[in-house]
Amino acid sequence: MRAALALLLCSAAASAQQSRGFGEVRASLYPGAAGTKWQLLERVRPTLEAELHERVKLVATVEAALAQGRDLSEELERTLGGSELGPLLELAGCQWPAFRNAALRVSGSGDYLDVDRLYLDTYLGELDLRVGRQALNWGSAQFFNPTDPFPEVLLAEPWRPRRGVNAVRAHVPFGELRDFTAVVAVNDALDELRAAGRLRLNFSGTDLALLGAWRGRERGLVGLDLRGTFGVGWWVEAAYLFGAPAHEELAVGIDYSIPLLERATAFAQYYRNGAGSAEPGFTGRSGGLSAAVAPTCARGESPLGGAAERDPFAPFTFGRDYLVVGAMLGILPELSASLAGLQNLNDGSGVVVPTVSYNALDWLDLSLSAQVPFSWGAGGGEFDPRPEDMVIRVPAPGRPLTADLSGLVPDATITFWSRASF
């Protein structure tokens, strides 16, 4: 019903004004992984706008997507079913989530259709007001933004737009270089209120922003965001997050541009997650994979334990200290190459993401990207765990029962995608 209503609104908007968006086909390979080693995804994402009044605009973005091939939950079910834990799960009467259409993995429209943006923009003199599901992103740092009240890390997913947030956002400028933004938001279950405020000032060419946010459940943050230029661009973004556990986060970096070919830029950044572990070889990956999709058991709790409620504000990483680097080279007006890297400075593991993009036509973009994990030495780590790090153990009479999840982690992920804009 929600999707049908959104489509109706979009159609009305389109007839009065304009539409834009893209269609995309993405193919991925997972060398070194067990089970299905490929995935194909098709997605269309139209955005429609209608000017309802001279100062009021309606914007709606609907996304429809289907996927075939590798699915992590199915691979986890297959792996655990063939392990020592298989008979135990069967004895407990455990059933895994299943779709009515197994080939496309859908049971209803909510599995492939989503209203990702649906908001009203209103301009009231010096006040800009946006009400509805919208994208929100604060912070000057690369990928990791400690002061962002609604954080997302898209380092390994350069194709994905940010998720929409149900919010009311008010923006008030004070001249060209100063402004104040306030946000009141609610989660998708509409039962948890969140709020944030950001005051941006400018002193001698340096942007300074003071931030505060309440995330519900006694969680929140206060932060400082600085950005300027002194020969090279620089930024310092820091926040103290209170909750469980209370901790600090910090991102400090520089970037630089040089006139090479079409354009060349590079950056380097140190990121600290005060809630992370500094111990070499630390990895929470096996536990995270086993809790990704928990089966429903007819005779009590699953032997794996219940699926923990996902914390929407949990850090993307498990460690404490990280180096983030990146570079982009515009080779031709229609051809560019980039490289991003993230390394855990505590355990020596990391991941590099090379990408080549080609603008074949004004409306058609082609890209090839990879995610390649690595580790210095044989110690493994967060991004490149050793096989023994991926073994889970469940207590049982006599000895623990084990399951080896190492086959769920590929040696690399290679992705090709084509995007047609309209």
CA-atom Rg in angstroms: 23 Å
Give the helix level as a range of percent. under 10%
Low-confidence stretches: 1-15
- What global shape is seen? globular
* Proportion in β-strands: over 45%
How far is the first residue's CA from the last residue's CA? 27 Å
The helix-strand sequence is: HEEEHHEEEEEEEEEEEHEEEEEEEE
Tally of DSSP β-strands: 22
- Quaternary organisation of the protein chains: single chain
* Sheet with most strands: 18 strands, antiparallel, barrel
Structure description:
The protein is mostly beta strands and 422 residues long. Helix content is 9%, strand content 51%. It has helices at 2-16, 72-81, 86-91, 285-290, and strands at residues 18-29, 38-53, 56-69, 94-95, 113-124, 127-134, 165-173, 179-186, 193-203, 206-216, 219-230, 232-242, 247-258, 263-273, 296-297, 321-332, 335-344, 349-361, 364-375, 391-394, 401-404, 413-421. A hairpin with a 4-residue loop joins strand 17 and strand 18. The chain is globular.
Give the topology.
Blueprint (H helix, E strand, L loop, with lengths): L1 H15 L1 E12 L8 E16 L2 E14 L2 H10 L4 H6 L2 E2 L17 E12 L2 E8 L30 E9 L5 E8 L6 E11 L2 E11 L2 E12 L1 E11 L4 E12 L4 E11 L11 H6 L5 E2 L23 E12 L2 E10 L4 E13 L2 E12 L15 E4 L6 E4 L8 E9 L1
Antiparallel strand pairs: 1-2, 1-22, 2-3, 3-5, 4-15, 5-6, 6-7, 7-8, 8-9, 9-10, 10-11, 11-12, 12-13, 13-14, 14-16, 16-17, 17-18, 18-19, 19-22, 20-21
Quick summary:
The protein is mainly β and 422 residues long. It has four helices and 22 strands. It is globular.
